[in-house]
Amino acid sequence: MRLGQMSPHHLGVIARTSSMAYKQTSKSVAQIGQELGVNYVLEGSVRRDADLIRITAQLIRVQDQIHLWADTYDRRLPGLLEIHDEIGAAIAARVNLKLMLRDKGQLTLNATRDTEAYDHYLRGRYHHARANLVDLQKAVEYFKKSTERDPSYAMAYSGLADSLIVLPLSGDLDPKDICPAAKIASTRAVQLDPDSAETHTADASVKFLYDWDFKGAEAAARRAIDLNENYSLAHMFLAHVLSNTGRHDEALPIIRQALVLDPFSLICGAMRGLFLYHAGRDLEAVEQFRATLDMEPRFWVGQIFAARVYERLGMYAEALAACDHAWEYSSGNTEAPSVAGYVHAVSGDRVKAKAKIDEMLELRKQRYVPSYNLALVHAGLGETENALQLLEQAFEERDAHMPFLLDQKWNGLRANVQFQKLLSRVGFPAS
């Protein structure tokens, strides 16, 4: 993580999500370098004995597998985190990278000197990347612990905002209960460190999913990339805003760059598939979803996005199977019966479509169910009045699905004046 912040305009660094996939691997440096498309590989190990930590690190050039540098660091807790800067400076010297004064200062701006706060932060990021309800709730707890240990730790607040803001999507939680806390956390993060890519990315996500401030979200994401071109989530959110507002030619190269930086990221892979679907490039989207789900079939986000494109291709059996997987792997996210109900509706099985509506209404007696998810099935059934009434409820709920209203599944309502007004109120430009 610190390497990626050193000099992002000159040094590209693969994200931790992907690099950690090689933990305890038997693959050669040449194989790893080829798979990741990198020129150098940094290997290391950490051993602990009571409060004594020994870290060994070595830098290997991929093309000839020459060891350019190696060193060993012995520290006693809590002095562990200073090693990040030492290793970064040593690597910069070996690859002939000259750090500007601004880049050197950035190394310490968003750091914490509390090892427990940092440990909680890393655990939070691990769970956040898994993007399901249980893991996101764990991520929230870890980020909260991190902020409690170090109330000035900006990245912990950004992680907290990143996790909270997607809970209404991943966990069917009421946005009015969750999103204000996400906004507070993202605001605090930017206040603590206005020169951090992580904090501006968190700001972008809140502006996009809760404020529906698409221009503000785009500006925040672009600011994050300007601060750190190696931060894959900044690229992903910028592409997300562009794709959801119909700017597909701009979105697709940017999500591709996110995958270059983090090639094994399940969420970036699934998002690229979604954005290809938004652009009408359905066969490419299917290929992307298959590649992502080959890495982890239980990744429910990939399953539900794949169901959308299968439906448009008329692959109804595949779409319904993907919905079943999404329901199972998401611990019951109602986007699964919503999309399944829509598939039944457009394929002519109105009885099963209405059964999915009844299923969600029963769940609604026990917990929050997004009105958007109910509206989608009614739209598939051609029940325009019911669909619009539910979308109005979704607007009042600040439903995080509303930024997806340009999805082609709403085309049956596109010419409706009330729907056009709703698009404008959410923040979409006039068609």
Question: Could you walk me through the main structural features you see in this protein, from its secondary elements to its overall organization?
Answer:
By secondary structure, the protein is mostly helical. The chain has a domain at 2-109: 3-Layer(aba) Sandwich (Rossmann fold), CATH 3.40.50.10070. The chain has 22 helices and 3 strands. It has helices spanning 2-6, 16-19, 29-36, 82-94, 101-109, 115-128, 133-149, 154-170, 175-192, 197-211, 214-227, 232-244, 248-261, 266-278, 282-295, 300-312, 316-329, 335-346, 350-364, 371-380, 384-397, 417-426, and strands spanning 40-49, 52-61, 66-76. A 3-stranded antiparallel sheet has the order 1-2-3. The longest helix is centred in the middle third of the chain and has 18 residues, at 175-192. The protein starts with a helix and ends in a 5-residue tail after the last helix. 47% of the residues are buried. Residues 99-109 have low confidence and may be disordered.
